[in-house]
Amino acid sequence: MVVHAKNKKRKHYLKNIYPNERYDIPKTPHELEYRINNGMEQRIKTFDFFISHSFRDYEVIQKLIDYENEKGKNIFCDWINDADYLKRHLLCEDTLKVLKKRMDQSKALLFVDSDNSRESDWCKYELNYFMTLGKPMYIITLKDIMEDCYSLTPFEDKWYYDTNYKDWILF
Fold first, then answer.
1. Active-site positions?
2. pTM higher than the cut 0.90
3. CB of 29 closer than 8 Å to CB of 85
């Protein structure tokens, strides 16, 4: 492994010690929120798209992510990017803070339209929150992805809109 460091101690550390270090870090949404707020590499992250979807459609979502990645797009998908910290059984207020931060870091939202995602309170929350950011929102249907048609349409329909969206997502 080539290490680009002039300092011999730093070079030794990066080459021999760092790759084998293991940390016992609690893998909770609270810990991830802390890392995002205090770690430079987490604070400066940006994403081309935040994918709002139902996890029940994960196989098709993975196909969409692969397609967008091949086009050079950086995609945020919670169960991929923050898989160690955002677990379905650990939902809490910190989960919400992390998702809001990731939406703040995203240039646009891509909603995958399916029966599952239309029924999801989390998707409705994400759509409402992203709308308040004033950033572009796009929609693609699950059926289109399955048929290898990846054209994104501006998301203008507001079926999800709810002025009280902040109240009903918290547990």
1. 126
2. no
3. yes
